[in-house]
Amino acid sequence: MTITKEQISAARVLVVGDVMLDRYWYGAVDRISPEAPVPVVRITREEERNGGAANVAYNVVTLGAQASLLTVVGDDEASHKLEALVAQTGIRTHFGRDADLKTTVKLRVIGRQQQLLRLDFENTPKSEILATQTATFEHLLPQHDAVLFSDYGKGGLAHVSDMIARARALGTPILIDPKGSDFSRYQYANVITPNRAELQQVIGHWSSEDDLRTKAHHLREQLHLDAVLLTRSEEGMTLFDGAGELHVSAQAREVFDVTGAGDTVIATMASLVAAGMTLRQALPLANRAGGLVVGKFGTATVSFEELFA
Predict the structure, then answer these.
(1) In the chain, pLDDT over 90 holds for what percent of residues?
(2) Can you state the angle between helices 77-88 and 53-63, rounded to 10 degrees?
(3) Which CA distances in Å does 302 have to 15, 89, 141, 230, 308?
(4) Looking at the chain, which runs of residues are DSSP E strands?
């Protein structure tokens, strides 16, 4: 099946999850500090980007689909900066604010074209704020064609099981980028998209493709999922579903930066499924999108034209 730009632009994806502000400080490294054996970075420019679930939603709109973003943030400078950044891209924002929460910020210091240091600022949201999110979710859900949960393990998806149940009741496709060693809270989703490390944390190491197949299908049945999509970097991707497996090889290209490739893959899957494709039909395109994005620096995105070029 082919998808037109019109079909994509009518597709509505609700992205729920942990957002963060990605800050990049670029500088010149000319000397080593006299105080300690560390480089002195003279900052020459700063850049801010959508991170976490905000980057996932940004990938949805870059592809040409519509995205709404439901999340919990602090009531701080970083949250207002992030909301403004997100709103500029045409994403509809639904930010719950918790005054005790520190909005997650990942600050990367870049010198001589490489990351020298990353500083993380974060804490966990309170459950009352998360409960109000569930009510907002219920209200937004019927206006969307697919729901994408982007879990970064920051606590914003404590009520994910309730939300899955509500989406399931409406028959809305549910896609999840999972985190942690317990996937039981994702039961009844349509598809989860772990990478190798994330899947290994849950099913243990696999000794062969056969072993992986057995363990992946067992997990799928145990959690009542339609499919498990394993993203495997240079080995491509494998979809385990009721019909067996479907594997797509990685598109050989210059790998520049794998940051955010998982975001692009699931955002592309969700946009195509929202536009009417099956998971199997969407898989090769999501794989292509992931391949395109690793050729770009930082958390990047892919346009409809690039994807279908």
Answers:
(1) 83
(2) 10
(3) 17, 14, 26, 20, 10
(4) 12-17, 19-32, 39-52, 66-73, 92-97, 105-111, 114-121, 146-150, 174-177, 191-192, 227-231, 237-241, 244-248
pLDDT digits (tens, 9 = 90+) for 64-77: 999 999 999 999 99
Neighbours of 256 (CB within 10 A): 13
Extract the tokens encoding 176. Answer: 């999840």
The angle subtended at Cα 207 by Cα 204 and Cα 210, nearest 5°, is: 100
Q: Can you give the pTM of this predicted structure?
A: 0.93
C-alpha separations of 101 from 56, 96, 125, 172 in Å: 22, 11, 6, 31
Hey, which residues are catalytic here? Answer: 263
What tens digit of pLDDT does each residue of 186-219 get? Answer: 999 999 999 999 999 999 999 999 999 999 999 9
